[in-house]
Amino acid sequence: MERKFxxxxxxxxxxxxxxxxxxxxxxxxxxxxxxxQHAWKLAAEQAxxxxxxxxxxxxxxxxxxxxxxxxxxxxxxxxDDKNHLYVAKEDKGIYRFTLDANGNLxxxxxxxxxxAQCRGLLWAHKSLYVNSNNPNPPPMKVLENSxxxxxxxxxxGDGVFESKVKMLETSQGSPGHGRNQMKLGPDGLxxxxxxxxxxxxxxxxxxxxxxxFDEDQLIPNPWDRDWFNKHAMAPGGHLIRMDExxxxxxxxxxxxxxxxxxxxxxxxxxxxxxxxxxxxxxxxWYKPTRVLHVVSGADYGWRRGTGKLPEYxxxxxxxxxxxxxxxxxxxxxxxxxxxxxxxxxxxxTGDWTYGRILAVHVEERGSSFGGEFETxxxxxxxxxxxxxxxxxxxxxxxxxGMKTRxxxxxxxxxxxxxxxxxxxxxxxxxxxxxxxxxxxxxxFFQVIKSKKGAQLALHHIxxxxxxxxxxxRIALENQDPEFWEDQALAGSAPAxxxxxxxxxxxxxxxxxxxxxxxxxxxxxxQQELLGMLRAYQLEFARNGKPSGRLRSDAIRNMTKLFPHQxxxxxxxxxxxxxxxxxxxxxxxxxxxxxxxxTTEDLSQYLVYSRYLxxxxxxxxxxxxxxxxxRLEAFxxxxxxxxxxxxxxxxxxxKLSEPEKVALAKWTEPIVLEQExxxxxxxxxxxxxxxxxxxPHYSSPLAGRxxxxxxxxxxxxxxxxxxxMQGNQASMKGIxxxxxSNVGGRFGVKDLLVxxxxxxxxxNDKYRNPAAPNLSTMPPGQINVLAEDEVLDLIAYLxxxxxxxxxxxxxxxxxxxxxxxxxxxxxxxxxxVKDEVTIPDNSPISTKIKSHxxxxxxxxxxxxxxxxxxxxxxxLDMYPxxxxxxxxxxxxxxxxxxxxxxxxNRAKFTALNMxxxxxxxxxxxxxxxxxxxxxxEGSRKVEVIVNLSKE
Length: 950
Prior knowledge:
- It is a single chain.
- The longest helix has 21 residues, at 895-915.
- A five-stranded mixed sheet has the order 1-32-30-31-29. The protein has a five-stranded antiparallel sheet with strand order 2-23-22-21-20.
- 27% of the residues lie in helices and 21% in strands.
- It starts with a strand and ends with a strand.
- The chain is of the alpha+beta class.
């Protein structure tokens, strides 16, 4: 006869992030949050639901883990060789998780809590290498364990790093533009990337590939000394490789802005994804985010301010593919994945700004590569900070940064993989392979001196393939000039002249200019012409301005081509002729300014014409000012308006009083025609807090009013400082960041925090010089808005000012009072239909007690842990026992919200029980929200234990 006992106990637990649990359930491997402080907030602060992330057909996304309240924001991930996943915190510290056979991340362990801002993590040589930054902006105190590259070793295998050695210390650098990611190269060396803000270490070996670099701006622009990143000098961002023990450092390449990561393809070629300076958008010197093939000795042209080198220069290189605006993060080829077809061969990269992961399809082009890109994954928000592939063949990426809630996600292939191709193999007999082998031969002589190397380089110095031409030039610069100088001067190869110019005073002064003047520029094709003009620039920049016959012959050689049908040729001729003070260049520049159709052309000709001191008359000044007004009529980045202001101010300083009267119409800023924003005079409504909007933390908002959101954008004074696409009232907003894509990286709560607490997380570009930790944005901007206006504003920000955005097309989710809640389902668990009770004299009733927690607390105290263990021992005593969980909530929210809260409480309890070995089949649950309050407390989960023992 079956004997049954029943017991009842009450446990109070708090809310878990609903979407995190849903995503874990989809993987059928739920993982409990072990030490979640203030877990009641997690439903509001959770990482974006996996359901909100779109991926191609055949793929699935899981939210593996959402960061706890006290775990900080995460910025980097790295697997070791024992299925451990290391996660670096944004402030300081590193967590280690274990990836088990079922895909769970278990055993969270803080393995390092002193090293700050670990933007780079690498497991290699049985060590964890860490690239660290100082989280405090200059001139604040530098932390002891920051601003350098560390090696951590676990000597006894207990998971604790007993050894910590700082292998390299570098100066300057900031968290967002400093010491970045590392990778183990196929040569066994460690490659690490730094952004433009890090000064080059003096430990770099003299036999490095990248040498002879300089600013190389023919006419240095005084603006650059006062703009953002004013201290940054060549080579800017740079790639270094070192040996295992940090005894050898070699500079590979430079001229980057801020690439966060690198990746090696199947042949050992290096790729990176470099950042743009978004403030330069629409100006001639803007460089978009670019995927680059990184070759030895290369300078990719980033310089501060206006001094950036175009990719068509002989001393720079083109990209694999230009992406445009964005914020590059993690980078990995898919070779280790279980992805099919084209995805296995793709180069994946994160974009923090736009909330997406791109797949770049790289293809062989000559001795280098080209490619196309497409969006692989996207979400709102999905602020990807890093990605990698796990030992299970799945992609893992982490979101976070700027103190936002982090999540670790897994992307799995769920489709049919039969018959799919594997990693594409290189054909050793193809033309591309033969060209690459030639490039490799030339690169060998970039650090080896040899007469043979000099002759090989000279032989290929005018090769039509730009990467071979580049490799030959760098190899030539490494050889003794006595072996090749005369042959180079006897020829007409622009790259050879570039090499001579970059070596400075190696030849008799004027000898190179004289030789270039002898070459008829009109006989050259466009590539050769651009190369020759750049050689002129480098010779003048490094060895001084020519005079007399050399100067006049150079002007005569150039003016016959100016203006040219190519804008790029015109750019270089403009700079050279202005520098050489050609008396006829101003009239030609005025004609070009009047005929400009792009902001790039306008900005180039206006900026360089202002260097001319002579030849200005009333008409040429009018042409200049009209050009400034035309430039002003176009949208652009933050520097766009700054450039316009400088151009106008400098020309006004040239005008006499009569000229100011005659040109008055052209000296004033233009007033853009725009839709008037009519709003009532703002009055104080309420000092809003982030918690006031807790019921609306679901992301994104839906069903809001676009027009009211746009009105709130102006009423709260956002348009004064921040641009928003499609919002003409904000086009002069250049003091703060452009908010057109803020919805791709920030959720509802993150947006509210940024508005209500603007100093909590400040981008380096917007720090207050007088107080680096105080934002120039004042708090309380939304205190003039009613609650609905705030919500309409947040929706407007999430939509990026686009009325057609899905924020406005999704069905509204409005909290409302509901009738009796229906039972909810947890896959694999039964749903309880009828409540059962038991007598108080149950045999085990004295073993388990009721536990009550203080409001807004969910810490797994020792008592809580013992209680879960007690439940596990109940199952040992009574193998047939079952557990019914009933979630409750108080009545402080809407009924629908309370139902969700009580559901999550029940789920949280279930997950903790499963984690401790209670089978899912023994657990059932239901939620009642606020419908069944009890005097002892309503924020609880009732656990009804059905004891059954044969």
